Automatic annotation (TrEMBL):
NCBIfam families: P_ylase. Its cofactor is pyridoxal 5'-phosphate. It comes from Tetradesmus obliquus. This is Alpha-1,4 glucan phosphorylase. The lineage of its organism: Eukaryota, Viridiplantae, Chlorophyta, core chlorophytes, Chlorophyceae. It catalyses: [(1->4)-alpha-D-glucosyl](n) + phosphate = [(1->4)-alpha-D-glucosyl](n-1) + alpha-D-glucose 1-phosphate. The modification N6-(pyridoxal phosphate)lysine is found at residue 662.
Length: 815
């Protein structure tokens, strides 16, 4: 037996109690616990070294981390793939089959969480002292089921078999309070919470690639202070006996609880404060262990990156801890806070820029509401002095517009806290996540603030880790690239990929490139076969749109184009159909549980697929599938197999997008609008190689004003009539969808689906034309990968570290 086999056998026997008769799940557990030992050695070595050297740390605060599976990623990053691959083979197992037994960690949902995961990978790979902080969700957001064509949600039960990749720290726990009241005595404010829970730390080591550094993702689990009320139980009040436990567990149960109810709003706020408070207490405790109460040094040792507005309550909590708990005066605490905190804006969508009703904040976090009121009073006083030269009415209007606390225009007599404004006012730096998005941030969302503090605002275009999203998920292409370039340096220096451009017209290289794609398409076809029982034609164009379901992402428009394609096929003669490019269209993504319109879009996509996929006249030329419960592992199969990916948001609505970067790295062509990172991808890979359609962001506001006068395309009208006529089932269920984009009806096409539809169909015709030219399609595919170097998260993190965090690499010595 090899040493690795002995390790795995030992784990099977002494951890699982099995020395024989084990199955694949057992082998996974044994292998994972074996790999974990190597991971823990590297983790402790890194943390010991960083503790000794006492560098400045960055702490990445995020409500979600979409990590995916860990086994293969850890093995590859630690450089153990050869040893474990050989051991598995000798034991009679395939490494990929073993890895498939792992549950996806249900710690995130969409691009925000996946970006955070990519950033942690890059922080570790670049040897930067930094940790992530978040919540250890018991059930994730939800597991998506498609029943009778409708999305339904069930808990994502991912922890029942344990999680070998986490380490529970029983000794690292902090009390977190809610509600209650405040009182003042001798000039000091005391908050007495009515409810308390315990935040218990779970460490998830994050190994860097080809380095000795292993960083950390510390997640907090909510536990009750009192596990069980025996007195209540003995008196017959069984519900009260476990009431405190159930209330605590709810905090870390589900990602993004439905906030359409007052109780849901309160729970979401409790979640955000829970993990922020525990994280800040943790960081400050470690600081004090080394530096005592020398808080002036704190900004030189710690900085916090707010990943969107969810962790923004950190501003008030840091002030509370410094003033109320550590005894600093307000000015000193404010100086420290504003040097430590930085804010990344991820969206231009109004509903995602959180605004908390004052009554909710005051009820759940009374001391924090007081602190925010003090911050706002100082801020508005500053503005009044700054703009004292303006006319009174103009000055008052500006101050009101920039106030952190504002009237809710939709609810009478309700004041609300604009968390994005609190983040901007309190942060040392504010950044957008793509060039166009950062320009919108400055020109629109935070224009008043930008005029006042232009030096605060930066752009940091997003990126993705090339390890998971090319090297590991697409081994065939990875090997071809390495063999062609003569080294695998591109895995940590993606600008090396630009050297592929000289092979863009090499026919022999084309053949190898296409062979890799066909192998990946066969792997995805096997997933479709397993899920739907259908064999799909491998000569078809694989056309993909995978992302959370939202009206601004316009999956609806994609579905409408599929309907049009189907209608055209039905009209064709058999001879005409022979000239058609076959397509397999695939969707994946979740609709938020309370997002009714997004659920209707899913249902339409499913019903369109049901009709098309069963039609013997067209099923060899067109298919449509909605892949349920889209996650990281599914993406790792879909993306390498894709040939066309759709990034078709209304111009000016997508902050960046990162799936477009993953597709680009894997040589997938893009049909898209000039929105988000699409613009920069076009610059890097050639706009002439992208299928661009739709209006530009600058034209959107005027078109929205004029949309009632739009003369819609006849093809669009015909499709609307088909949906209204019941061609795809329950026409009453689809009526809100039709009304949302039909001229002069409810909604009036805010996302310009009807406006862009003709341009979109033209772009789709161009896709068909180019796909028929195999060499041209392959050339473009190669140029996409060659132009993807900029979009590594390593580049993004280097920029954050240099321009915002001011954190230096610190690589531990080898063990």
């Amino acid at each position: 037996m090899t040493p690795i086999q002995k390790e795995v056998a030992s784990k099977l026997r002494y951890l699982l109690g099995k020395s024989k008769d084990y199955d694949l799940k057992d082998i996974y557990q044994g292998t994972a616990w074996s790999v974990r030992e190597h991971l823990i050695d590297s983790f402790e070595n890194t943390q010991d070294y960083w503790t000794e050297k006492d560098p400045k740390f960055v702490y990445y605060l995020s409500a979600e981390f979409l990590m995916g599976r860990s086994l293969l990623n850890t093995i590859y990053n630690l450089g153990l793939e050869g040893e474990y691959g050989k051991a598995m083979q000798q034991m009679g197992y395939k490494m990929e089959e073993v890895a498939d037994q792992e549950h996806n960690a249900a710690l995130g949902n969409g691009g925000l969480g996946r970006l955070a995961a990519c950033f942690l990978d890059s922080i570790a790979t670049l040897d930067l002292p930094g940790w992530g902080y978040g919540i250890r969700y018991q059930y994730g957001m939800f597991k998506q089921l498609i029943k009778d064509g409708y999305q339904s949600e069930v808990p994502d039960i991912w922890l029942t078999e344990g999680n070998p990749w986490e380490v529970k720290r029983h000794d690292i726990c902090f009390e977190v309070g809610f509600s209650g009241k405040t009182s003042s005595s001798n000039g000091k404010t005391v908050w007495t919470p009515a409810e308390k829970v315990m935040a218990v730390a779970y460490d998830n080591p994050i190994p860097g690639y080809n380095t000795t550094t292993t960083s950390n993702l510390r997640l907090w689990d909510a536990e009750p202070i009192t596990e069980f009320d025996l007195e209540a139980f003995n008196s017959g009040d069984y519900e009260k006996a476990v009431e405190e436990r159930e209330r605590a567990l709810a905090i870390s149960a589900v990602l993004y609880p439905n906030d359409s109810t007052p109780e849901g709003k309160e729970l979401r706020l409790k979640q955000q404060y829970f993990f922020v408070s525990a994280s800040l207490q943790d960081v400050m405790t470690r600081f004090k262990a080394v530096h005592g109460d020398n808080w002036r040094l704190f900004p030189e040792k710690a900085c916090f990156q707010l990943n969107d507005t969810h962790p923004t309550i950190a501003v008030a909590e840091l002030m509370r801890l410094l003033v109320d708990e550590e005894g600093l005066d307000w000015e000193a605490a404010w100086s420290i806070t504003t040097k430590c905190v930085n804010y990344t804006n991820h969206t231009v969508m109004p509903e995602a820029l959180e605004k908390w009703p004052v009554r909710v904040l005051a009820k759940m976090l009374p001391r924090h509401m007081e602190i925010i009121e003090i911050i706002n009073a100082g801020w508005t006083k500053f503005l009044e002095d700054k703009y004292s030269g303006l006319k009174a009415a103009e000055r008052d209007q500006l101050v009101e517009r920039m106030s952190i606390i504002q009237e809710n225009p939709w609810v009478k007599d309700e004041m609300q806290v604009n968390m994005a404004y609190l983040a901007v006012v309190s942060s040392s730096a504010v950044n957008g996540v793509a060039y166009i998005h950062s320009e919108i941030v400055k020109a629109d969302i935070f224009n008043d603030f930008y005029k006042l503090f232009p030096e605060k605002f930066q752009n940091k275009t997003n990126g993705v880790t090339p390890r998971r999203w090319l090297a590991f998920c697409n081994p065939g292409l990875s090997k071809l690239i390495t063999d062609t370039l003569g080294s695998d340096n591109w895995i940590t220096d993606t600008y090396e990929l630009s050297k592929l451009a000289k092979y863009a017209d090499d026919k022999a290289f084309h053949k190898k490139w296409r062979a890799v794609k066909q192998d990946n398409k066969a792997r995805l076809a096997a997933v479709i076969k397993e899920t739907f029982g259908d064999d799909v034609p491998l000569n078809a164009l694989f056309d993909i749109q995978i992302k959370r379901i939202h009206e601004y992402k316009r999956q609806y428009m994609n579905v409408l184009s599929i309907i049009w394609r189907y209608k055209q096929l039905k009209k064709m003669t058999p001879e005409e159909r022979k000239k058609v490019v076959p397509r397999v269209c695939m969707f994946g993504g979740k609709a938020a549980s309370a997002y009714d319109m997004a659920k209707r879009i899913i249902h339409l996509a499913v019903k369109v697929g049901d009709l098309i996929n069963k039609d013997p006249d067209t099923r060899d030329l067109l298919r449509c599938y909605f892949l349920p419960d889209y996650n990281v592992s599914l993406a790792e199969i879909i993306i390498p197999a894709s040939e066309l990916s759709q990034h078709i948001s209304t111009a000016g609505t997508e902050a960046s997008g990162t799936s477009n970067m993953k597709f680009q790295m894997n040589g997938c062509l893009i049909i898209g609008t000039m929105d988000g990172a699409n613009i920069e991808i076009a610059e890097e890979s050639g706009k002439e190689n992208m299928f661009v359609f739709g209006v530009d962001a600058d034209d959107v506001p005027q078109l929205r004003k004029e949309r009632k006068n739009l003369k819609t395309d006849k093809r669009f009208d015909e499709i609307m009539a088909d949906i209204e006529g019941g061609m795809f089932g329950d026409k009453e269920y689809f009526k809100p969808l039709v009304d949302s984009i039909s001229n002069m009806k409810v909604g009036n096409d805010w996302f310009l689906v009807a406006n862009d539809f003709a341009s979109y169909l033209d772009a789709q015709e161009e896709v068909d034309r180019v796909y028929k030219d195999v060499d041209e399609w392959t050339r473009r595919s190669i140029m996409y990968t060659a132009g993807s170097g900029k979009f590594s998260s390593d580049r993004t993190i280097v920029e954050y570290a240099k321009d915002i965090w001011h954190v230096q690499p610190l690589k531990p010595p080898a063990l």
